[in-house]
Amino acid sequence: MFATMKPGGYFDTTYNERLRIIYTPWQWGAWICFLVLISLYPIFVSSYLATIGIRIGISIISVIGLNIIVGSTGLLSVGHAAFMAVGAYCSSILMSKLGFNFFTSLLTAGLMGGIAGLIFGAPSLRIKGFYVALATLAGHFIIIWLLMEWFGGATAQPAPRPQIFGISFDSDISYYYLVAVVTIFFGIFARNLLRSKIGRAFVATRDNDIAAEILGVNIYACKLLSFFVGCFYAGVSGCLMAHFWGFTNIQAFPFDNAIWYLGMVIVGGMGSVLGSVFGAAFFVILEELSFIIAPSIAVLIPSLGVATEAAIKWLIFSGVIIVFVIFEPNGMAHRWNLIKASFRIYPFNY
Questions:
Q1: What is the pLDDT of residues 274-296, one digit of tens each?
Q2: Predicted TM-score of the model (pTM)
Q3: At residue 96, does pLDDT exceed 90?
Q4: Domain span at residue 135?
Q5: Contact criterion met (CB below 8 Å) for 143 and 86
Q6: Residue 323 lies in a domain
Q7: The domain that contains 113 carries what CATH number?
């Protein structure tokens, strides 16, 4: 409801105006300030903080894709890390061995991730709920096994930094700008996709697939398209991750990551692009904070043993998800919408 509320004094006279995302000069100003902040961020921070920004951008792309599948269409997928691995291996091989340029490798990585999503999302045409999760779970281990068999086990594949129009993105700052541009582009694309006829079909399938089919929605095509788009995003994020680290290794895409991506969707807000941004940024920052406080906890409570530093991240992540499921099940995006709505009706309480 709150996502469609308009600021006071602004009225729609045409359908195109009804589809606007940004209405007021204040909103335009906030958006411009956000872009300026994103542009200046790597200039005034250390290289370490710039790498955190890169990781946040890559995670946002991946979580947006998973949110399209889980949040918008209602299909539970736990194989997202494997689809990222498909994109990572595809891009690294195309650039390092076949000499493809970065844009071609990026799009091909997304397409290969989307095709893998079509294959392992096809069971959703006959099964629902928990059983779809089991199908994607099997898909994760099948994909990981195939990649290990085809590309020499756990041997790392080189993934060189891209060079576009003679500009080399070999430094973290330059690569940050590349990731930022790709993230903003795919974020805007997803936002408009979910507002389109296709996005409304996703939501109708999620809410009641029988009613959606009666109203003329092809739920089979809708489910497959959702898996394709969501896994396309996973392939793109896997490509960016591979070229960020400089190599592709199967150990960089464990099953744990797929679970935590689901956690990012839950914490950020299901079915929301902004929720994907909130969830991904929150978890990446929380992970870095856990690495900082883990040694202090190990010193304060030595009886916990040396495993404390390794386990504190998972304990914090698990606790955060439990807290959000109990106290804020609609995620951070819902709370943000409530805050915006409170400003719109201030000083009245209705």
A1: 999 999 999 999 998 888 887 77
A2: 0.90
A3: no
A4: 46-345
A5: yes
A6: yes
A7: 1.10.3470
